From TrEMBL:
The lineage of its organism: Bacteria, Bacillati, Bacillota, Clostridia, Eubacteriales. The gene is ywaD. This is Aminopeptidase YwaD. The keyword Hydrolase applies. It is an enzyme of class 3 (hydrolase). The chain crosses the membrane at residues 426-445.
Amino acid sequence: MRKKIIYYSSLVATFILLSLSLFSNFTYSPFNADNVKENITLFSSDTYKGRLAGSQGNSLVGEIIRKNFTDNKLIPLNDDYKESFKVLSPINNNTLPYLKIAYDDGYSESLKYGVDYKEDMINFRKTNFTFSNEDKINVFSNYIEVSTSEGTCLFYLSPKNDFSFRSSFISTFPYDMMVMINTNTYNKILDSIKEGAEVSINIPFSIEEKEIFNIVGVIEGSSSKLPPLILTAHYDHLGSDALKNIYYGALDNASGTSFLLEIERALSTYGKPKRDIIFVALNAEEFGLLGSKSFAENNLDKIKDAEVINFDMIGSDGYPLTLMLGASSKDKDSKLLDSIEKIAKNNNVETKVTYENSSDHASFNDLGIDALSFSHSDLTKIHTPNDKVEYISTDAINSAYSVIEEKVFDSSYGFITKFFYGKTSIFIFSILFAFIASSPLTTYIKKRKIR
């Protein structure tokens, strides 16, 4: 009788463990780079018009992300998934752009917008200027600095005569307006000033205060005492210009946002982590890292001991995985960097370490938080209308994921969870179940039943 109890108990226990392992494996939906590219296609489409912070397109993408978090049963970190903050944002004011040169004899000349000159988006505190040789004008080899009672304007020679590049927007930038010009325009302005002409310029953009949002969701861990792992990516980009050119921002940073969402989707089907995993879709990175600054400062008590990994530009073939830390982290130890470098080496992923404040990791580093960015630092199409989804590589996405996958699972999940969600567990329990079911004890029990 005792042997029968042991036998049936072992058989039932093994069957339950096998069933649990099968259930875990069948409910887990692993990371898929094709899903990442599909979302990049969506977010960088004409529909969202470049996702400029403060625009309708930006708001719509934020709502897609929020719905994604709720659909996958993430919880908000605070009262709401949407954490608001205010920014100054550039808007198209629908005025006519012009650059006119007027001479004393009544002759005037108008230069062509988008051919001879174009605004640089970095600041629009002023939208028009009029100046002459009576104003303060400093001339340099590749730019002209103009100071009037109205403010300051900088005309600079564009590295590309097609004016395709658009800078980030920085409301605190020292100049009230910046204008890209070609060599012909540079010479015309200088010659006209020498001849006593008056130069007038109007740019069809101005500034308006907007309320915008970071989107934050949490996969809750089993221990609130452990510091969280925070994964971030910015979803804003540069919008569109007055010529209706859309700055799609596929690599920068529909790619990082889509990478973040696919990690989140996959982990939402996995077991419970040991620590909280916080996902943050940041806004206004292109306005000077304002979203990450707002999130980090407002949640400092909750995240001060966290590790933060930011995704910015994921998916360019032929580029090493740049691990970027802020300038304030140079010559300081980073356990996060050490662990990532070790994982990358074991996975044969080439890495490059830089210390720059050019992405959202810097906002965390400046507050003493261990943070870095993953980036394929391909700058060939960045901040131009040519940053499109067709240049994104799923091989490069998978290469970056091989590193983050190991980091996330090793640092945030226990052995038992990883075991049951791994296919090895199915193999082990299947063999064990078959062994018990076919053991000599089974034959013995069957014979006893026949008797």
